[in-house]
Amino acid sequence: MSTEPAARPAQQPLPATPSVSVVVPVLDEERHLEDAVRMVLGQDYAGPLEVVLALGPSRDRTDEVAERLAAADERVRLVRNPTGRTPDALNAAVGAATGDVVVRVDGHAEIPPGYVATAVATLAETGADNVGGTMDARGRTAFERAVAAAMRSPLGVGSSRFHTGGGAGEVDTVYLGCFRRSALERVGGYDRRFTRTQDWELNHRIRASGGTVWFTPDLVVTYRPRSGFRGLARQYRDYGRWRRVVAGLHGGTLNARYLAAPTMVVGTGVATLVGLAWWPALVVPAGYVLAVGVGGVAITAGEPVRTRLLAGPVLATMHWAWGWGFLTSRPRRLLGDG
User: Fold this and answer.
1) pLDDT of residue 310
2) How, if at all, do strands 178-180 and 101-104 pair?
3) Among the four 31, 75, 85, 292, which has the fewest Cβ within 10 Å?
4) How far is the C-alpha of 317 from the C-alpha of 236, rounded, in Å?
5) What percent of the chain has pLDDT over 70?
6) What is the pLDDT of residues 245-298, one digit of tens each?
7) Which neighbouring-strand residues pair with 215?
8) Could you report the per-residue pLDDT of 176-204, keeping only the tens digit for each?
9) Kind of pairing, strands 169-170 and 213-223?
């Protein structure tokens, strides 16, 4: 197989104010959906704009809220997503969308008034196929604030710019994404098999086809973290599981950052077992506990004491859940191949 990169696809210039479709996968978002949609409809953007809500089988009053929003504003359109799965929702919404630019927003996301205008301008200026910005994690409770600090720190999530910030430039992936419609059509949309990491996988195919994924710090989306240890552990376990699926499907995409957590799980686990018979080996897990404890305090400087004390256990939960998920992942089963 050739190792030469794919030729960059010919780009048609965008109109001065291209039509924009904001696509939103929706499931059990009764509490947040109205605010999220109103933030989209209130965008400071001069061109045509529509919102396409892909409605899964919600167990709350989400559908009633969505139908009320659609009745009140003709720019809001509804499509059904019977499976409730995120990639199916996104593909259904993109299929119904009419815009030259497709902007992904989640049902509980909070985007500032200039988000769409900035995204469109960045697409035009850079010639990129997809642009995105910072996932600005912000918590309300002490636990959520500890998670938010961990998500903004390399100690928690590595060096991805959409988590930790940085200068504008080409990247592997971005949070959510603002796409040229032609790029989504070129690569065939989201892979419906990917319950998680569907953004990373899609962006990989865009780059493999010769396209560009661009990060800009000028785009910021507020993200609300999980509110308890159980939900956080489940989230990061699934991230680890699906990251291994991506690695198996797309060779050469693993690097040291992705292997750090599973290596830590194996190393501290083995050292703990050895330590039962030979106590000096316990210096390994003890060193890890000390490191995350000190690190947690450091990344929450200025926060209340409770938040600072929770940050270490939060970091450990993220590391262990991600690493364990990666190590125990069964890619063929997750992809439905066996």
Assistant:
1) 97
2) antiparallel
3) 31
4) 8
5) 94
6) 988 888 777 777 788 999 999 999 999 999 999 999 999 999 999 999 999 999
7) 132, 169
8) 999 999 999 999 999 999 988 899 999 99
9) antiparallel
Render pLDDT for 112-131 as a digit per residue (tens, 0 to 9): 999 999 999 999 999 999 99
Establish how many alpha carbons lie within 13 A of residue 57's alpha carbon, considering only the half-sphere containing its beta carbon. Answer: 4
Residue 118, token pair as written in the block: 């900035």
**Which residues contact residue 32 at a Cβ distance below 8 angstroms, ignoring those fewer than 6 apart?**
107, 108
Identify whether the C-beta of residue 120 lies closer than 8 Å to the C-beta of residue 178.
yes
The 3-state DSSP class for residue 200 equals helix
State how far the Cα of 328 lies from the Cα of 273, in Å rounded to an integer: 19
Give the separation between CA 286 and CA 294, rounded to whole angstroms: 12
Domain boundaries, the chain: 20-226, 244-334
Residue 77 has pLDDT above 70, yes or no: yes
- Mean pLDDT over 231-254 rounds to 88
User: How many helices and strands, by DSSP H and E, does the chain display?
Assistant: 14, 8
Yes or no: say if 236 and 326 are a contact pair by the CB < 8 Å rule: no
Q: For 131, how many CA atoms within 13 A lie in the half-sphere containing its CB?
A: 23
- What pLDDT does 1 receive? 38
Highest mean pLDDT among 22-36, 85-99, 147-161: 85-99
CATH of domain 20-226: 3.90.550.10
Q: How many CB atoms lie within 10 A of CB 308?
A: 20
| Residue 291 CA: distances (Å) to CA of 113, 157, 311 | 40, 15, 12
**Share in percent of the chain as helix, strand, coil (round to 5):** 50, 15, 35
CA distances from 180 to 20, 28, 120, 259, 279 (A): 10, 29, 9, 32, 58
Q: How far is CA 310 from CA 139, 156, 293, in A?
A: 13, 13, 9
How far is it between the farthest Cα atoms of the chain? 71
